[in-house]
Every structure is written in C-alpha cells, then in structure tokens.
Amino acid sequence: MGMWSKAAEMAGKAPPERNRYVDFLRAMSILAVVVGHWLVAAPYMQDGAVQGGHLLGIVPWTQWLTWLFQVMPVFFFVGGFSNGMSWSATQRKGGSYSDWLGGRVQRLINPVMPLFLVWALFALFGTAAGVERGVVKMAAQLALIPVWFLAVYLLVSALVPLSHAAWRRWGMGSFWALVAAAVLVDLASVFGGVPVVNWLNFLFVWLAVHQLGYCWQEGRFKAPLAWGLVSLGILGALVKFGPYPLAMIGVPGSDLSNSMPPTLALLALGNMQIGLVLAVEPTMRRLLDKAWLWTATVLVNGMIMTVYLWHLTAFVLVMVAAWLMGGTGLHAAPGSGAWWLARPVWFALYIGALLPLIAVFSPFERMGSAAGKGEVRQVPHWRLLLGLALICLGLTLTAAISIASPEGVTGLRVWVVALPFIGAALVGFGPAYTLARRFAR
User: Fold this and answer.
1) How far is CA 40 from the centre of its chain?
2) 167, 159 contact by CB (below 8 A)
3) What predicted TM-score, i.e. pTM, was given to this entire model?
4) Backbone angles phi, psi at 50, to 5 degrees
C-alpha cells in the first residue's frame, strides 16, 4: 500500500468531532519554517570558495518575509490546543503526570536520536579523514539548528499541569500575567541593559502563546480578526518606534534578535498570526472536509518531525554536491534576478535530497508516536524531570555551540552528544528501548 493510500485510510478513521484545522496548522507551520530556512540560507562562490551568505543581511527588504515565515508561534499555539486536550483527558482517566509527559517526550525525542548519531559520526570520521574542522563544525551546526525549538517546547510541555491549572483558575488573566512578565524582561534587558535576564522570555513568550491554545481549545477565543489587527498595529509600532528590528529571526550583524531569545515584537507577531489564522478557521474547516486536502494533511503530519529535523541536512548535502562540482549554480549573487529565478530548481534539489532521508528515518517518528500513545514505562518523577533536563540541555548546547569540536582528537563534543541519550535512558526510552519492546511482542 502506498503512502497516499495509507494516509487516506488513516484520514478516514478520524472521528468527526476532530478539529482538522489543528492538524493543518501544525503541518503548515513546520513547512513554512522549512521553506524559510531554505530561502534565507544563500551561499555563493567568491574567489573560488563558498561563502555562507544570509539573504536577510544581503537583501534587507526580504526581512519583511519573516513576518510570513516565522510561524513558530503558531506551532506553540497549536501545541497549547493539543496539550490542553490530552492533559484534560489524562486527568479524566486518572492517568499520572509520568504517563502523560513520558509519552510526549518520547514522541518528540525518538526521531531526534538518529539525527544526532548521523552527525556525530560525520564529525568523528570527517575529522579523522582530514576535513577542515571549521567546515565540519559549520556543517554540523547548520544541520542541527532545528533542535533548539524542541528544547523549549519540551520545557513548555513539562509545565502543562501548572499552566493548564492557571488557565482553569484565571483564564485570560494567566495569559496577561505572562505578557506582563515578558514586558518586564524586555524593559530590563533591551532598555535597561541587564544581561542574561532576556533568556527568561524563552519561557514567558512561548508560554503566553501556549495559553492562547487553551483558550482556543475551550472555544473562548472571541473576535480573532480584531485581535490579529490590533496585534499587527502593536507590532508595527514596536518596529517603527522601538529598538526592535524588522526581521523576526536573527540577522548577521544585528545587535538585537527578535527570536534568540524572543522579544515583545515576536510575541506581537504571534498574536497577529493567531488572530488571522482563527479568523479564517470556519472557511478552512469546510475545505478540510474535502478528502484530498484532509488526506494530504494526515500524510504530512505523519512525517512532519522528520521533515523538520532533516531538512537542513538535505540542504547541506545539496551544497556539498554543488561545491564538489566546482560551485555549479552558486555563482549568481544572492537577491539578483538570476538568483530568484533559480530558486525553484534549488528547492526541487532540496526536496529530492530530503525524500530518501524521510524514507529512511520517518519510521523512528512513527515508532515514537506509537509508543507515546501506548503504555509508557513508569519512572519516578525525579528521573523523568532529570532526564528531561539533560535532554533539553543537550539540545540547547547542540544548537548553540555544535557537537563538532574545533579542538581535541576526535573533533566531537562527546559529552554534548551523550546528554540527550543519558536523559532518554533516565526517562526510560530511546531508539534501542523502543526497538527492543517492538521485537519482544
């Protein structure tokens, strides 16, 4: 049976009360991030060497595009909807926090492990083969950038019992409290020059967006179009009159990034996007009643984490192939007419490189999803939380400093690679554990 047929079969089993728009937004938000990454990365040949160009820095007007492609707020918003439903169901059934969080962690982390192993082996054997360490580090860090968001999302998920309880007790008051906290953080860091405190907005901003997902899930989100337009006005004012840059992601050479860590501008962008996507919800839900669109949504969601995790690996593979062929296709100046006309061809190459990676590694995502929905191995809360902390630390360090080391014999920061695996072992799962359980049945 083909992938489309399997997706059609799964789509047909969806209960009629399911909000298909949630699944659609989850898929579209991740795909938008993939397209955005492929677009802004603009390497080119100069003096016989490949230069790592960044479109937003080379062509400043393209920074407006980040208002469209920086849609991680939508993903966290959808996460609030899904987490609110699943946590409420767990409570009704008398399930435990360990059951619930262990399943969520397993679904998210299982597909990450093969990515870590592949790039760890590349760093190890690439260094041994004499590949320049700077090249190894750059390639590994670029390919593993996507893992940063998983660390934040896991932390937000771990706090669901508290954030959901706050929602049930205070409603939108819990959202506004987080907004106020984000405002105070920006006042201290952006305007007051207080160091480090801005990292708290990784929690305050994303938790605020996540709270709105609870609001949507309970059907209490009113006047979404007005919400979106007011948020657009606030965003415009923050960018025009405040110190916030136009781009909603980091731009080389910029003193301030709206995403690392998140700022009030990114929070306003998220609120704008949420208002607009909810304004078209009735129309989109009618469209999703069409079998072909719902089947496509189910198909994409079945491999969405694999697509997200491996899309920059596909990009690196294509760039390496172009470099080996003497820089074929890399001589057009980023942002030029020739460069834009070549984008469809490059995107086709990226997709062509990604498809075999999906075929090889998507089974890990399916195994993680199946195991996460089934019986989860019970572990004490201290092990669950310590394991989660080690996983998040490993993912954060991977995105921040890379698993590849410019020094040492191996060229690999073994301790960084080990952290997520040790964390997974403490929680009581991982690829080895999942496979062993699968074959034991």
Assistant:
1) 16
2) no
3) 0.91
4) -85, 125
Averaged pLDDT, 193-202: 91
- Tens-place pLDDT, residues 304-332: 999 999 999 999 999 888 888 887 888 88
Beta carbons of 29 and 306 less than 8 angstroms apart: no
For 241-268, b/e burial (b = at least 16 CB within 10 A) is eeebbbbbbbbeeeebbbbbbbbbbbbb
How far is 179 from 201, CA to CA, in rounded Å? 10
Amino acid at residue number 406 = P
Phi, psi at residue 195, to the nearest 5°?
Answer: -75, 160
**pLDDT tens profile 73-95:** 999 999 999 999 999 999 888 88
Residue matched to tokens 């709270």 = 211
Q: Which of 58, 48, 43 is nearest to 139 (CA)?
A: 43
C-alpha atoms less than 13 angstroms from C-alpha of 224 in its C-beta half-sphere: 18
Please answer whether residues 157 and 203 qualify as being in contact, where contact means their C-beta atoms are separated by less than 8 angstroms: no
Start-to-end Cα distance in the chain: 24
Inter-residue contact 424 to 387 (CB < 8 Å): yes
User: Dihedrals φ, ψ of 171, to 5°?
Assistant: 60, -135
CA angle 92, 213, 367 (to 5 degrees): 65
Nearest to 412 by CA among 423, 401, 428: 401
Pair of tokens at residue 222: 């009113």
> pLDDT tens for residues 353-391?
999 999 999 888 887 666 555 555 567 778 888 989 999
Is residue 225 within 8 Å of 237, Cβ to Cβ?
A: no
Cβ neighbours for 80, distance < 8 A, ≥ 6 positions apart: 209, 210, 211, 212, 213, 214, 216, 217
Neighbour-count burial for 85-105, b at 16+ CB within 10 Å, e otherwise = bbbeebeeeeeebbbbbbbbb
Give the pLDDT confidence score for residue 152 in this predicted structure: 93
Q: Are 24 and 288 in contact (CB under 8 A)?
A: yes
Burial class (CB in 10 A: 0-12, 13-18, 19+), 387: buried
Residue 191's CB: how many other CB atoms inside 10 A?
10
In terms of Cα–Cα distance, which of 406, 342, 353, 402 is closest to 44? 342
Surface-to-core class of residue 172, CB atoms within 10 Å of its CB (0-12 exposed, 13-18 middle, 19+ buried) = middle
**Contact 74/24 with Cβ under 8 angstroms?**
no
Contacts of 284 (CB under 8 A, 6+ apart): 21, 24
DSSP state for residue 441 in the 8-state scheme: -
Q: What is the pLDDT of residues 5-27, one digit of tens each?
A: 888 888 888 888 889 999 999 99
